[in-house]
């Protein structure tokens, strides 16, 4: 589903951090929100998610204005760096949880949990507890839990930040594979330009609450429109 921010504005304690941002994420694309720490990436993601109330503008899911809907009433899947799994539940119950809230029937829950577990390659881990999993396996479970309700949009906030370098590489291609297989619209928040370039269809570069340029990785690299963009892409922090 197409997701659009129209004149999205957000302030904290009277201090405006995002001022009339416009951004469209096309149906089925994976878009990176890329920029240095503190530029407003998570704030933008939280607005799409509905975790934060916005101070101005609109958030559209397709042609539906969801600006005033709480998070539970938006069909979003989220994977955050520190959005932990429920430690007292099995992997199966963790994934099934969003469906039990929706009062889906047992047989249907079982079918959907197994389908998404197969897609994320965790079928053999369903009986375990989160503490018995590696970091990469935990992120696979978090992805499965985010996707099981077939959300309108998948929101990923620095999902690879807690993984070691080898796992990070593996999960980059795994997340992209799953996104392409499901065809879900996705937003990846990252401060890592290589991650954005290698995983996404388009990149939106942010600085100080503003989007400076939106382009495919190739176009962004070939034709940066500002010195900031060129510097950010060229000089890994
Ligand atoms: P990023 O995710 O790009 O690192 P954030 O969206 O977290 O950046 O933050 C953008 C700006 O908003 C920062 O200046 C940050 O200090 C401020 N900010 C974020 N969340 C809050 C909050 N809950 N209260 C006050 N200020 C906040
Ligand atoms: Mg952040």
From TrEMBL:
The alphabetical list of record keywords is: ATP-binding, Cell inner membrane, Cell membrane, Membrane, Nucleotide-binding, Sugar transport, Transport
The answer to whether the entry has keyword Electron transport is no
Topology of the protein relative to the lipid bilayer = Peripheral membrane protein
Recorded coiled-coil stretches: none
The organism's place on the tree of life at top rank = Bacteria
Give the protein family. Answer: Belongs to the ABC transporter superfamily.
Q: What is this protein called?
A: ABC-type sugar transport system ATPase subunit
The part of the entire sequence present here spans 1 to 237 of 352
